[in-house]
Structure formats: C-alpha cells, structure tokens
Amino acid sequence: xxxxxxxxxxxxxTSIVIVALIHVVIGYALISGLAISAVxxxxxxxxxxxxxxxxxxxxxxxxxxxxxxxxPPPPxxPPPPINIAPAPPPxxxxxxxxxxxxxxxxxxxxxxxAPPPPPSLARGPQRxxxxxxxxxxxxxxxxxxxxxEIEGNxxxxxxxxxxxxxxxxxxxxxxxxxILDEAACQxxxxxxxxxxxxxxxxxxxxxxxxxxIVYRLN
Length: 218
Known about the structure:
The protein is elongated and about 225 Å long. The protein contains 4 helices and 7 strands. The chain is about 35% helix and about 15% strand. It has a domain at about 125-215: TolA/TonB C-terminal domain, CATH 3.30.2420.10. Strands 3-2-7 form a 3-stranded antiparallel β-sheet, with helices on one face. Strands 1-4 form a two-stranded antiparallel ribbon.
C-alpha cells in the first residue's frame, strides 16, 4: 500500500508540473505576440540607416624568396688552332731546258727629214733716193744759224713706219746748237723716204734707222 501511495504522489506532482509549464508557455506566447506587434510598429517608424562596411585592406604580397647565388660556369679554354699545311705542288723536272728564243728586234724606218725652214726675209728699212732728200734738208738750213754762222753735225735716230715714212725722230748726238738739232729732226720727218722694213715672211713692218746730218756753210 505504501508503494502505491508513493507512485500516485509522483504522478500527481508530474501532472502539476506539466500544467504549470503549459500555462507558462501560453503566457509567454501571449506576451511575445504583443511584443512582436509593438516592435513591428516601432520598426516601421524608424528610418533605415545603411551602414557601409569598411573595405578590407589589401593584403601585402609575401616577400620574394631570397635569390640564390649561382656559381658561374668554369672557363672553357678554346681548342688550340690546327695548322693544316697544304701539300706542296709536285715538282716537275725537265732534263733538257731549251735556250730562250732571241728577242725579235723591230727597227722602225727612219722618219723622213723635215723640210728646211724657208729663208727669212726680214730686213731693216732701206733709204730711198737719199741724195735727193739729204740735199733738200741742206737747202732748209735754218736762217738763224746762217746769220750766226753756226755749223755742226747732228746724229738722229728715226722710226720708219710700214709706209716708208719717218714717224718719229730723236737727237742721239747733239751739234751743240738747239737750232740745228731741231732743224735736223724736222727735215727727216719732212723729206726722208725709205723702203719699209720687212718681217721674216716678207711683210712690211716698222723699223729703225740712225744717221748723221752735216750742216756746213759754203
């Protein structure tokens, strides 16, 4: 009987606890429903604020691995040059060497002799009828010299043109009298006549002549 009573008490306590838990859950549900509706109204009034999350900082790249020193390859010496001498040309021996042929001398024919140059025809002026024009110069004895009885010899040098006339006259030897010297050149330019000088080809050209005019009173 005692064991049955204890089992009944345990069942009753368990039922009471379960009923109490059901009331607690119903009450919590009612309170939670009211609270959720109130929270929804408050949330509708509140302005939504967007909060930007900060961008994550870029991660630094890992440091490069340390370079490993590579030992240089050992030096390689070039192979020594190989001298390959060409084979010498074969030597041909000739027992009998003929003598060289004598050179052929070609003697050109002698050049014809050049013709002799023509004889030169050059000559100086030739006095023409000297006695006549010399007498005319004497006849033109200056009157002033006659009055003063002046005599003398005048040496003159003249230039004869291609026409045989005296183109200029200079006194080469003075008589001591300007009157006779001047009269001598004037007489030569006025009365003297010449055959003109000739060049090598025989053409008339200018030439020179010298002479002495003697002035004497009779």
